[in-house]
Amino acid sequence: MKLSPRDAPGYFARPDPSRTGLLIYGADAMRVALKRQEVIAALIGPQGEEEMRLTRIPGGELRKDPAMLLDAIKAQGFFPGPRVAFVEDATDVLAPIVTDALADWREGDAQVIVTAGQLKAASKLRKLFETHTNAYAAAIYDDPPSRAEIEATLAKSGLSNVGTDAMRDLMTLAQELDPGDFRQTVEKLSLYKLNDEDPVSSDDIAICAPASSEAELDDVLNIVAEARSGEIGPIMKRLKAQGVQPVGLCIAATRHFRTLYAAASDPGGAGQGIARVRPPVFGKRRDRMLRQAQNWGADRLQQALTLLTETDLQLRSAGQTAPAMALVERALIRLAMMARR
């Protein structure tokens, strides 16, 4: 039987132990693995693997020894409780073996959990589970998690007190990160908020979220965007000493001002625009960039992007003879002066 995308999350959280088995398949191996972990943990509990009630069978090994699956289904362990026979990375080559195992399954046997990559509609393995009267097949798509799934992830990590702005930031972050990274971020957040009764805030998420690749350049970009031209020289010397490359600095500045332009030019206003930018910005950094976008306005930001594009072309020009870092510093000073108009 097919599990619809709407019903699948509920079943993964509370699987039926009387079912023969479940096939989980999809193009994203990480998403499939996370769902498989959730289902198995719900079936056998946190101590199930330690009590040897889980048998892992790699697809390659099952192909060499077809009897492994049926043996795992019928085997009786020393500890009472539900058992699972897990077949990993299955393909259609294993369809006859799995078919025979499901046919011999009886109540009380280990439930069969099978994971696979992307399967076509004509896949024998997929058809086996979709047409079985006591087994399920669930497709895992690359869609970002829903609010309900995010709330379930937070609840498992012990985070129940989440502010409205923080939840909005988490939903945005979930769209940008792959499922494994998002779960790690939530776990990091739960540790950060351990014994802290205050609600989770946007600032908390900004601290725990994966660092931006241009985070080390934020200081100079904020100085430029806030028209503090007198501070550019000293920080440029520090960046040069740290080995920051002129082209990389120009690219980072372009990204920063492109984000400001996207916010300032949004039809719904800069506040709505900054919430839509990708990659997302959080907490105090978002508030700061929102003020910058409002102060600049879309027209001047468009002029700033033109200046940065011209500077980038100069840096990459074969006939360029002027020191590259000096060119970038001059462009940043011009930008800072532009912000004062």
UniProtKB/TrEMBL annotation:
<dbReference type="GO" id="GO:0003677">
    <property type="term" value="F:DNA binding"/>
</dbReference>
<dbReference type="InterPro" id="IPR027417">
    <property type="entry name" value="P-loop_NTPase"/>
</dbReference>
<protein>
    <recommendedName>
        <fullName>DNA-directed DNA polymerase</fullName>
        <ecNumber>2.7.7.7</ecNumber>
    </recommendedName>
</protein>
<dbReference type="InterPro" id="IPR005790">
    <property type="entry name" value="DNA_polIII_delta"/>
</dbReference>
<keyword id="KW-0808">Transferase</keyword>
<keyword id="KW-0548">Nucleotidyltransferase</keyword>
<dbReference type="InterPro" id="IPR008921">
    <property type="entry name" value="DNA_pol3_clamp-load_cplx_C"/>
</dbReference>
<keyword id="KW-0235">DNA replication</keyword>
<keyword id="KW-0239">DNA-directed DNA polymerase</keyword>
<comment type="similarity">
    <text>Belongs to the DNA polymerase HolA subunit family.</text>
</comment>
<dbReference type="GO" id="GO:0009360">
    <property type="term" value="C:DNA polymerase III complex"/>
</dbReference>
<dbReference type="GO" id="GO:0003887">
    <property type="term" value="F:DNA-directed DNA polymerase activity"/>
</dbReference>
<dbReference type="GO" id="GO:0006261">
    <property type="term" value="P:DNA-templated DNA replication"/>
</dbReference>
